[in-house]
Amino acid sequence: MNNKINRSGYFSKGLFSRNSLTAFAFLAIPLAVYTIFVIYPVLQAIWFSMFKWDGLGPMTDFVGAKNFLKIFADPVFRIAIGNNFKIVFLSLFIQLPLALFIALIIARKFKGAVVYRAIFFLPYILSEVIAGVLWSFIYNPQFGIQNTILVKWIPFLADFPFLGSPTTVFYSIFFVMIWKYFGLHMVLYIAGLQNIPQEIEEAARLDGVNWWQMNLHIILPLLKPTIFLSIFFSIVGSFQTFDIVWAMGKGEPVNAAETMVTYMYKFGFQRFQLGYGSAVAIVIFLITLIVGLVYQKLTASKDI
Amino acid sequence: MIIGENRAVVSFKYLLMTVFAILTLLPIILVVVGGFKTLAQLRLDLFGIPDPVMWSNYLDVVNPERSMFFVNLLNSCIVMFITVALGLILSSLAGFALSRIKFKGKEIVFTFFLLGLLFPPAVAILPLYIELKTLSLLNNYMGVVLPQVAFALPFQIMLTRSFFNQIPIELEESAYLDNCTPLGFLIHIVMPLSKPILTTVALLAMVTSWNNYFLPLLVFNDEKLFTLPMGVMSFQGQYINDWSLVLAFISLAMIPAIIFYLIAQKYIIDGLTGGAVKQ
To answer: Read out DSSP for A14-52?
Structure first.
């Protein structure tokens, strides 16, 4: 064996006298792209958030924390943040259980599971914009299900306004989110279930355990890491909701379907209040971070 | 047969799953079929078979004089290909340095990259917009590509680095004895051996880029640069009263993603779940 070779890696100490230079050559471009387009704008957002600025000319109007106070005083922002949390909780209590239920059924000993899995996952690969416009059609009062199904078969829903009314628009959009994303969570659960050894299940069956007992007391505890992970994805994703809401009426009518990101977009790019918009961005970031950290703390203590 | 499960239970499960499957597919089917209907039939007969069959809706959508469909499609492809190629190159370079090269500050650099996992694009979008304007990257493919690449890098580097870590040291030794440079080693030995992880990186980048709407919405003002999701929105706005035409447009816009999904389904699902579930 060549004695020049260092077992901890050949580009490591002693072989190359200029290792740091080599490393720099490899890292320069990735670091530059990442710093310029991620880190720098994030830092700038913090800076911007303390000014009143329309994006033109120099930033001179320093307002300190005023933007942040204004955000929480704005009833529209309260609707927006409320909607984001509603998405989190409804996903937790409707979407994820549904995904889990389906996964438990088709994950094992289910002929044709591959086909079912493929169908349930299909909406996930469509873009949110396409999903949104597609469902805008389904919800359309003249062309969608209203005329054809509701009026004829479910008369008490004949006037259900879907996207047309502030009381129903949020839930109509949330339904589309379930449709689009339950397949993703299902796929995660199926992958998790496939990691659980068959023997455990067979042993339990021999002990006369029924389907419910099996899933509740044996499978679910073993699936905990996957469930925690899927909840985490769901939470983080919920706070970023934009495309689907934008495609289904831009948060209207009367801001009823607004989310934090659509709110930020409206202030930043439609009213050109870049300082205020940046403050909203920082709030979104902090909320995501705090909820994420709290969540990780909570789940970590329950031995993940 | 399965112990403890009688036929009734099994049949019920199939019935239930089939109902769910139909409900999942129904909106998509209604849209695709709806694209073949006249506006009048669409209004009255959502579930009917198209009568007469209106090929003209679909023909209008692919007619460059009536719609920008192919322009949108081409733009989506261009943005996606550059994003994927750059992502593969940059994450391989960085992942390699952070995995196989020893240098001072390695952990700091890695942590610096991981920091990026905390920032969703929305946080940086306003300053990013100003920055792209300053760099004259608005209405430029690279104005979408570069931020897309940058925001994907942290996760991609995490994947490549951990995969490159597993490449046996003996390969390095023999490469070194053959006077192979670090870059040569990366290109000729490490990357070919890392196909599974590079496939995952590429597929995730493809899906993200293809579906991205937020960033192109800000960067592209010029209709000639619109990507497919933007095209869908703008076409719908333009033909707000002609739903059968809009349905034809959405149907065609779904096709590339669906074909891609049918071909690469296993890899997409493995890519999404593999990194997450199997440790």
So the answer is: TT-TTHHHHHHHHHHHHHHHHIIIIIHHHHHHHHHTTEE
Name residues 21-50 of chain B within 8 A of A (Cβ): 21, 24-25, 27-28, 30-31, 34, 42-47
Amino acid at B232: V
Q: Nearest CB to A133: which of B30, B101, B250?
A: B250
The answer to whether the CB atoms of A33 and B150 lie below 8 A apart is yes
Q: Identify which of A55, A138, A281 has the shortest CB distance to residue B125.
A: A281
How many domains does chain B divide into?
Answer: 2
Q: Are residues B160 and B75 in the same domain?
A: yes
Query: What pLDDT is stored for residue B18 in this prediction?
Result: 95
Residues B51 and B41 sit within 8 Å (Cβ to Cβ): yes
Ordered structural domains, chain A, with CATH: 66-301 (1.10.3720.10)
Q: How does residue A10 score in pLDDT terms, banded at 50, 70 and 90? A: low
Task: Mark yes or no for CB contact B103/A44 under 8 Å.
Answer: no
Closest by CA to A211, choosing from A201, A224, A221, is A201
Residue-wise pLDDT tens digits, B210-254: 999 999 999 999 999 999 999 999 999 988 888 989 999 999 999
Considering only CB atoms, A34 lies closest to which of B28, B153, B183, namely B153
